[in-house]
Amino acid sequence: MSRSYPIKVAERAVRFPPRARRLLLIGADSLLLPLAVWLSFWLRLAQPFHPSFLAAGLWLLPAVLLVGLPLYAFTGQYKGLTRYVGSLALYRLAGRNGLLVLLLAGTGVILRLPMPPRSSWILLWLLLTAFTGAVRFALRDLLLSLRSVSQKQMMRVAIYGAGEAGAQLAAALRLAGNHQIVSFLDDAPVLWQRTINGIPIQPPQVLSQIQDQLDQVLLAIPSLPRRERRRIVAELQRQAIPVLQIPSVDDLTSGRARIDALRPVAIEDLLGRDPVSPVPELLGPGLRDAVVCVTGAGGSIGSELCRQILQHSPQVLILLESSEPSLYAVEQELRHRLPASVELLPVLGSAADPSLVQRLFAGHGVQTVFHAAAYKHVPLVEANPLAGLANNVGSTRVVCQAAVATGVSELVLISTDKAVRPTNVMGASKRLAELVVQASALELLESSKAAGHPRTRLAMVRFGNVLGSSGSVVPLFRRQIAAGGPITLTHPEIIRYFMTIPEAAQLVLQAATLAQGGDLFLLDMGEPVLIKDLAEQMVRLSGLSLRDAKNPNGEITITCTGLRPGEKLYEELLIDAESEPTKHPLIFRAQERALAPELLWPRLDVLDAAIAAQDVEVALNLLAELVPEWQRDGAKTAVG
443 with 598: CB under 8 angstroms? Predict the structure, then answer.
């Protein structure tokens, strides 16, 4: 007999028609009910055919079928899916059998029929529940095992985590029928030598002994801190075993994902730090029931700001974006999660358009503005400096002027660590944008003292790289790995700080509440990351190997191309100021050099004229004058 024949039989068994399965269960119950009646007499009276059985059994045997089978059918006993039978089904079955015993006893009393000993009724109930329950659990296990046999290939896995999530994952995989769970792994010694459904719980150190028996390791600890996750994944990678993980706690509790929605471990799950709970009084003020505008709403930071702002129920959320595809994408996403009380207003246009911004702020009574619109790709801005200056500096001046003129309550500029001692045009343009906000705040401070009216609070938030943004190396490395390499690294010693986009956006919203006017806030970016280590980790997470001198047969190579024009080996958050703590442990306030408005505005007018005339030389000379920390190195440009 060929090996494929039993597999075909198993596949047919799994696809048995539902009506045939019900008839099978009814047939089994037809045998088990009389058997339970007979055993209840035998166990109680110690004789298989006691005179009491011969008297009472004459009516009990047919009665248990005439009453029991219709009772089971009427109460839904044959409607359940056998392969999903669980403890709740057993409790319901016990209740049905209790009702059946009461009906039989009542019938005997009413009709004055011969009755068995009273204790036999309890035995009958227990036997009925045991027999009918056992047959259903046995059929369930048979169906699941047949379904597993019918799978072309079983994935042999170990589940890392013997807690509640691990047990739930094992149950889900068992129902799916395409995984063979070899072992549970857990760091807790108290769990070792114990089992979950017969599967042993072992220390992680046994991986080296059982790795030949495994195809995958499934990480089933959703609340695991990032530091511990990094350690565990590093240990598993040393064994060269692919690692998958279950969804996050938020995804599980919100219902967005099931426990068995396994996915590869992403680099974003390992970098950064564990989320820090927001300070309650810093989230909500300035957003709830307010008219909020986000410029650059289609970008990575802008779109995440919009997602989180919606959670605080603004009255109106205005999305200002110059890219039509980006605006369409973010609007469609936000529409799906839009609270009924919030109005969403997509505006296609540039934040550097003074007429549009003025009309938008005045016409809708904007109260809070997050200015995230900017060109941030260093090489592109280096090659196109006039476009970078027009967008990064020009839009900031326009937004500040409109905010002050229309009485916006607060405006927050999203800045970057590349503004500190900039080595490129993009960083220098963002530092000049900071100077615009500082000068606007100084000018507003003087005018508000004289007029005595409420003043707009202007602030800046400066932070470094965010994971997954359009300017991050992570998407680039991911594309290069998917294409088979090589990964292009500018320098083997280049270091960057990383923060997740949601964490950065949440900190920006809290920093806005702390603003007093002209504030520069710095975000604690966590631990620095060597980009070469990041690239190597991403290769391993992809299930591939590095090709280098030690492993010439690897699949992905890493090549160093040299630092790009204006690129730094490391980033900073301060120029020369000392930072001071705030109410939030990850947000710091700094005071840095500012330019007086009467000095800055005339120079910016000259800069605007140079941009309009496409005079790169004059524009860059002005930039170097206004941002003396930036040194021109004869950057190559696409214009001029």
Answer: no
pLDDT reported for residue 80: 56
What is the mean pLDDT of the segment spanning 147-173? 73
532 located within any domain: no
* Alpha helices, H only, 340-484: 354-364, 378-383, 385-389, 395-406, 425-451, 473-482
Kindly state whether residue 303 falls inside one of the protein's structural domains. Answer: yes
Q: Which three-class secondary structure state does DSSP give residue 385?
A: helix
- In a shared domain, residues 354 and 377: yes
Inter-residue contact 605 to 528 (CB < 8 Å): no
Bigger pLDDT: 567 or 340?
A: 340
Tell me the mean pLDDT in the region 565-584: 67
What is the per-residue pLDDT across 348-367, written as a single tens digit (0 to 9) for each? 999 999 999 999 999 999 99
How confident is residue 83, by pLDDT bands cut at 50, 70 and 90? low
CB contact at 8 A, 609 and 626: no
Q: Which residue has the tokens 């997740």?
A: 500
Among residues 390, 549, 568, which one has the least CA distance to residue 494? 568
CATH of the domain at 400: 3.40.50.720
Nearest-angstrom CA–CA distance, 188 and 195: 13
What does the pLDDT average to over 632-637? Answer: 52
* Number of CB atoms found within 10 A of residue 405's CB: 13
**Under 8 Å between Cβ of 347 and 355:** no
**Is-contact 206 184, C-beta < 8 A?**
no
| Cβ contact 36:93 at 8 Å | no
Report, in angstroms and rounded to the nearest whole number, the Rg of the chain calculated over CA atoms: 35
Between the CA of residue 299 and those of 268, 367, 403, 473, what are the distances in Å?
18, 21, 21, 16
CA-CA-CA-CA dihedral for 205, 209, 210, 213, to nearest 10: 150
Distance of alpha carbon 546 from the chain centroid? 28
Give yes or no for a contact between 65 and 72, defined as CB atoms under 8 angstroms apart: no
- Count up the domains in the chain and report the number: 3
* Spatial distance between the Cα atoms of 361 and 340, rounded to a whole number of angstroms: 23
Please name which of 75, 93, 72 lies closest in space to residue 27, comparing C-alpha atoms: 72
CA distances from 306 to 303, 314, 501 (A): 5, 10, 12
pLDDT tens digit sequence for 365-417: 999 999 999 998 888 999 999 999 999 999 999 999 999 999 999 999 999 88
- Note the pLDDT of residue 471: 57
pLDDT for the residue 316: 95
99: three-class secondary structure by DSSP:
helix
3-state secondary structure of 322: coil
- Strand ranges for 148-249 from DSSP E: 155-160, 179-185, 195-196, 199-202, 216-219, 243-245
Please check whether residue 199 lies inside any domain of the structure.
yes
In a domain, 130, yes or no: yes
556 secondary structure, DSSP code: B
